[in-house]
Design goal:
Layout: E1 8-10, E2 13-16, E3 42-47, E4 50-55, E5 58-61, E6 78-83, E7 86-90, E8 93-95, E9 99-104, E10 112-115, E11 118-122, E12 124-129, E13 134-137, E14 140-143, E15 159-167, E16 172-174, E17 177-179, E18 189-196, E19 201-203, E20 206-208, E21 212-218, E22 225-227, E23 230-232, E24 236-242
Parallel strand pairs: 1-4, 2-5, 3-6, 4-7, 5-8, 6-9, 7-10, 8-11, 9-12, 10-13, 11-14, 12-15, 13-16, 14-17, 15-18, 16-19, 17-20, 18-21, 19-22, 20-23, 21-24
Length: 255
């Protein structure tokens, strides 16, 4: 017997008009070398809940206060956070947030189906850490600025359109358009980062004006097909890093 949650949220607005974080991600006044502990606030927080459908919803922060060091992208909260939770997003809008959608899992369940979304000015629009069955299709993403730590490490601060970290089998990232932040300083950003094993696909995505277009970390027994992707005006268009004898499928002919 399988219990299926048929809950849905349609045409809802989750709007914050003040900073959505109890303490800053970066203490600018102290000149930090690493992030501080912080308490992030969410539009929706889901724990071990499956199959909630979000349709035509808007998640945004209207906090436009400026500070002397950088855009305050780090205190704008998360639109949706799901832990061991599977959710479906159709035609939703995410504006001016630290993270639009953040999914995490300790043992594989969860993931998401995200299609026809609009992400504008988020530091990291879509993030998935450890969940299976992660599908992103036909989303329009405009990256926000990076978070400028004084002393940064690889990927620590950079804005990322779609960030798939240790994704299990069943991820498909296809036909998304991602544009880099072009607002001046703090523009070091990535289009797509994906780490996973066999049975996964990166197909016909378009990345514009990002420092790094598509970055794949390849694990397991051959990873995924990488076909028909386009990266325009990028320092590195497509970068692949393999370990454990993984080999990506060649770009090949487009369908």
């Amino acid at each position: 017997y399988t219990y299926s949650n048929n809950s849905y949220m349609s045409d809802c607005h989750f709007i914050g008009d003040a900073p959505l974080q109890n303490t800053r991600f970066v203490d600018y006044t102290a000149g930090p070398t690493s992030p501080r502990p912080y308490s992030m606030q969410y539009g929706v927080n889901s724990n071990d809940v499956t199959n909630v459908i979000f349709s035509n919803d808007t998640f945004e922060t209207r906090d436009n206060a400026t500070i002397s060091f950088a855009p305050d992208i780090d205190i704008r909260g998360v639109g949706y956070y799901g832990y061991n939770s599977y959710a479906i997003f159709n035609s939703c809008v995410f504006n001016n947030l630290t993270r639009g959608i953040l999914k995490t899992s300790t043992w594989g369940p969860g993931g998401a189906y995200i299609d026809n979304g609009s992400f504008n000015g988020c530091w990291r629009s879509i993030s998935n850490d450890g969940s299976y069955n992660f599908i992103c299709f036909n989303n329009q993403i405009q990256n926000g600025p990076e978070i400028p730590f004084f002393s940064s490490t690889y990927l620590t601060t950079h804005a990322i359109g779609i960030n798939g970290n240790t994704i299990g089998p069943g991820f498909h990232i296809s036909e998304n358009t991602i544009s880099g932040y072009t607002g001046g300083a703090f523009g070091n950003n990535y289009g797509i980062i994906a780490t996973g094993n066999s049975g996964n696909t990166l197909y016909r995505n378009t990345v514009n004006n990002c420092n790094y277009g598509i970055t794949g970390f390849l694990a397991g027994d051959g990873l995924y097909q990488i076909k028909c992707n386009t990266s325009n005006n990028s320092h590195e268009a497509i970068s692949l890093f393999a370990y454990l004898d993984a080999k990506p499928t060649a770009q090949g002919s487009c369908i």
